[in-house]
Design goal:
This protein is mostly helical and 145 residues long. Helix content is 61%, strand content 0%. The protein has one domain (4-133): Four Helix Bundle (Hemerythrin (Met), subunit A) (Up-down Bundle), CATH 1.20.120. It starts with a helix and ends in a 12-residue tail after the last helix.
Length: 145
């Protein structure tokens, strides 16, 4: 059975491997793909700003001394960084389609789904009030999940 840290590192490595594959290939994107890419970058930037330096990490394990946030974009979605990553990946996979980009995006979605589950379990262990605080806040996509 892998350790918590080992599983977290494996998920982060898988996430960044998917991102690397998505970044390869053509960047000749239609205007709408550039708009989706810009939206994804904006969502990630808003998330980073709302989180602050004490909380930001690629790991699905809370940092020492972290605090829960429900301000800014975190009032609407629990994992806006992941949402931003998925929007950027969708822009590339759909805007300059290739089978390997589509596969990388689908795998990215699966990896982030597992990361969300792990992260929420660890946040609940560290902050028992987390489930109640997040009630009514979408995990990844408002109105869907």
């Amino acid at each position: 059975m892998p350790t918590r840290q080992g599983a977290a590192v494996a998920l982060v490595l898988a996430q960044f491997a998917c991102i690397a594959v998505l970044l390869c290939g053509s960047w000749l994107l239609p205007w709408w793909a550039w708009a989706v890419l810009a939206t994804g970058l904006l969502v990630a930037a808003l998330a980073a700003g709302a989180l602050g330096n004490r909380n930001i990490t690629a790991m699905p394990l809370p940092r020492e001394g972290n605090v829960l946030r429900k301000r800014g974009i975190y009032r609407v979605v629990r994992h806006p960084m992941y949402m931003g990553v998925l929007l950027c990946g969708a822009a590339l996979a759909l805007g300059a389609p290739a089978w390997w980009r589509t596969a990388a995006w689908v795998l990215e979605l699966a990896v982030l789904r597992v990361k969300i589950d792990l992260e929420e379990r660890r946040l609940t262990e560290k902050h028992p009030e987390y489930p109640e605080l997040m009630r009514g806040v979408a995990r990844l996509l408002p109105g869907v999940w």
